[in-house]
Design a protein that fits this description.
It is a single chain. By secondary structure, this protein is mainly alpha-helical. It is 51% helix and 10% strand. The protein has 10 helices and 3 strands, in the order αααααααβββααα. It has a 3-stranded antiparallel β-sheet with strand order 2-1-3, with helices on both faces. Helix 1 runs antiparallel to helix 4. The longest helix is centred in the first third of the chain and has 24 residues. Bound molecules: manganese (II) ion (MN). Manganese (II) ion binds next to helix 1.
Amino acid sequence: MKYKLPKLPYAYNALEPYIDARTMEIHYTRHHQAYTNKLNEALEKHPETAERPIEELLANLDAVPEDIRASVRNYGGGYWNHSFFWAVMGPADANATAGPSGVMNDAIDKTFGNFPSFKEEFTKTASGLFGSGWTWLVLDENGKLAITSTLNQDSPLTKHQKPLLCLDVWEHAYYLKYQNRRQEYIENWWNVVDWAAVGKNWAPGN
Ligand code: MN
């Protein structure tokens, strides 16, 4: 099986003005495509690995043949992380501004105090990440909501955490529009978070 780019659920310009169309297009057609191609190249060397879902490979990296382990970690992580990232964003609307609802909202209040405190902590974590990586809201190994960062293209799946929301804080995700202003990118990004999608990721059984 060969991995293909997942269809982007919206147009390149759908997240404007917070994420510009040019950045979306390059990010998706070049960066995400490159991770996908390199993942496929690695898996070709061990066809049996291509039969297993990428989530399973990332969750059991030690079981991946050593000569492709770093490629699966980096390119498989890049493939999966970006696929997940596109799906937790959507055009800015009242839903994004209002934040999570229902049980997801209750869980965020219980863990972080309230929604603004959660946003503040997540923003602080993402802006403080040194180098390239991702910031996540996950259910951790104990099933508790937690904010965490991963370096490079590492995946929370490798730590047996369940990802709910993520933010790409590699410079390629924001540099064209924001240059070195990562904090501004993060603050604007909140406008395009699709909380309905995050709620579905959280729902037990998913
Ligand atoms: Mn990226």
